[in-house]
Amino acid sequence: MAKILLYVVICFLASSANGCNIGKRIINDFDMEKALGYWFLLYYPKEFGDKYSCYRDIYGKDDNGYTINSTIVLTSGETVVYLGTITMDDNIINIKYNTFDELSTGYRVLAADYDNYVIISGCPPGEKEVLTYMQFRSQNPDDIVMKNVEEALEQTGSKMKDYVKTTCPLQDPYR
């Protein structure tokens, strides 16, 4: 028992030393049911942009619970699809991909309006710091949505200037 406790303390200290503070949330009752469907990452953290040129998630639900289907276009042009499961715990979306550990982690929901955007933040394995992602229902959010996202992002302690906009070649089912 003492070894397990020591291991937990060491893991906690290691994650604290890594500076992984997954952000200030401004939403306290995230509803995964309202978030089901297509989401596009149109703005990437600058650190993320050299790996992926496009990223689309489909949050779903089956008999076993919540699922995720992530289609990723790499900067090389190759398209890959990763499937996984989602569990929820106090505004944390715990994503476990079947074959993609690089982004399997807990993501705190910082802000969401469900119809247009959700802002999540997490510390994926191998990353040096927390990464915050803005996901959109459409590849073409209007000016009002973008203003709301910028305001929500600032409330979480981030700024839009820290992100890179991409052009996602994946089909937008809402156009």
From TrEMBL:
Recorded superkingdom: Eukaryota
InterPro entries: Calycin
Keyword terms, alphabetized: Signal
Signal peptide region: 1-19
Protein's name according to its UniProt entry: Lipocalin/cytosolic fatty-acid binding domain-containing protein
